[in-house]
Amino acid sequence: MASNTATMGNLPSGIGICTTIPDILYLPELIFGGLVWILVACTLVVPANPQGWVMFVSVFCFIMTFIWTVVFACGGHHNKGSWAAADFAYHGIAAFFYLSASVSLAKVTLDLQDDSQNFQSYQLDISAVVFSYVATLLYFIHTILSAIRWKSF
C-alpha cells in the first residue's frame, strides 16, 4: 500500500478508493452492514419497533455507502473540499445510527436469552449484534479519518 499521508488532501477516484485511507473501509462497511441486514431479516421480529430501526439503519447505510462508493469510484466529487466535508458528515451520521441500532439490537437479544423456543433467532441476533458493533466501529474510524482528510483541504 502506498504512503497515504501525502495524499490526504486529495479525494481518490477509480481504483484509488481501494488503496487509500479512509476509503479502503468502504468494502468492509458494505460487507458487515449487509451481514447485519441479512441476519436481522432472517430472525423472528418479536419487538417490531427496535428491529425495524435496525433494519432501516442497515438498509439505509448499505445503500448510501454503495452510492457513495460509486460516486467516489467514478470521480463524481471532482476533488472538491465540500465532498470531503460531506464524507465526514455522512460517516458521522452513519456511525451514530449504527451505534443506536446496535444498542437496541443488543437489548432485544438479551430479552430473547431466556426464550428456549426461539434459540435459532437468538443465535442469529447474537451474530447480528457482533457485526453491528463491527460496522459501528468501521463507520466511526472512517469518520475520524475523513475529518482528518477534510481538515487537510
From TrEMBL:
Domain MARVEL: 17-151
GO BP annotations, alphabetical order: myelination
Compartment annotation: Membrane
Keyword S-adenosyl-L-methionine: no
Predominant cellular place of this UniProt entry's protein: membrane
UniProt keyword annotations, A-Z: Membrane, Transmembrane, Transmembrane helix
PROSITE patterns reported for this sequence: MARVEL
Cytoplasm among keywords: no
Transmembrane segments: 24-46, 52-76, 88-106, 126-148
InterPro entries: MAL, Marvel, MARVEL-CKLF_proteins
GO MF: structural constituent of myelin sheath
Pfam family, one: MARVEL
GO cellular component, one term: membrane
Protein name: Mal, T cell differentiation protein
UniProt organism field: Seriola lalandi dorsalis
